[in-house]
Amino acid sequence: MKTYIDKLAYIYIQDKKIIMSLSKGKTTWYIPGGKRENSESDLEALSREVNEELSVQIIPNSIKKYGVFEAQAHEHPEGTIVRMTCYTAEFTGDLTAASEIEKLEFFPYSRRSESSFVDHLIFDDLKNKGLL
């Protein structure tokens, strides 16, 4: 039986590179985002997570759904699937690692292997669309 982890991700690309975050104590990089709290909508959760991790405010009317990706969850038992709903948006403020985030870096496609399984799918999709 499959178990699903429902997550939101923020795709922000600059110069054909995607913003990636490294949590304190981790070795795998992730596309910024996270899980909903209580009855948050996608947009509420995305805005909160981006602010908590990247120290910026998403501009609500600029949010666009990018797509949904599913893969085996990194460091979870076989059959635990992460379902990542991805959004793009503009923001105000300066990108700065915050909260549990140790570092932020812009990754080219060549650094795809440093990320989680579901992020590999997103990297591939972005590359196929000429965005990375």
Automatic annotation (TrEMBL):
Domain of life of the native organism: Bacteria
Domain Nudix hydrolase: 2-131
Classification via SUPFAM superfamilies: Nudix
InterPro entries given in the database record: NUDIX_hydrolase-like_dom_sf, NUDIX_hydrolase_dom
Database matches in Pfam families: NUDIX (PF00293)
Residue ranges that the Swiss-Prot or TrEMBL entry lists as coiled coil: none
Signal peptide stretch: none
Protein name per the record: NUDIX domain-containing protein
Species of provenance: Christiangramia sabulilitoris
